[in-house]
Design goal:
The chain is an alpha+beta fold. It is 13% helix and 21% strand.
């Protein structure tokens, strides 16, 4: 009897291999989250198949701490083929790193991922961030 095979992933094509490291203009980089990254502040990595998440950490070269996070996941509502969101550590809000992520993450997703209609969560239709409520 043949071994059972995994059902086709309804979100990521079987041929697709998620991108590795992405260098940013600030000297930081994105890379897939690994199990060892919980030691520097990342949540445990989530699966990237069977409808799971694709998690990327934002790091400096030393990777001593996670400075931000990028998450790609199946869409929660119709009208997109992926939901993408990202953030930086509180102390980096308003920084050059945050500004570079605002530009580079959408460009990277459109260039290196198999999505035709990604939704960038937390942005309105103009691409601006919604106002942050006071704390």
């Amino acid at each position: 009897m043949p071994a059972p095979t995994a059902p086709p992933d309804p979100w990521l094509p079987a041929w697709f291999r998620r991108p590795g490291r992405l260098e940013l203009l600030t000297g930081h980089h994105l890379r897939p989250v690994r199990d060892v990254d919980v030691d520097v502040g990342c949540p445990p990595p989530a699966p990237d198949r069977s409808g799971g998440l694709c998690d990327y950490g934002v790091f400096e070269d030393e990777e001593a701490e996670v400075l931000g996070h990028v998450v790609l996941r199946p869409p929660q509502r119709p009208g997109a083929d992926a939901d993408v969101r990202w953030w930086v550590a509180d102390r980096l809000v308003g920084s050059e790193l945050e500004a570079v992520l605002e530009t580079e993450v959408p460009r990277w997703v459109r260039r290196d991922w198999p999505f035709t209609a990604p939704r960038f969560r937390g942005r309105d239709l103009t691409g601006r961030r919604p106002p942050v409520p006071p704390r």
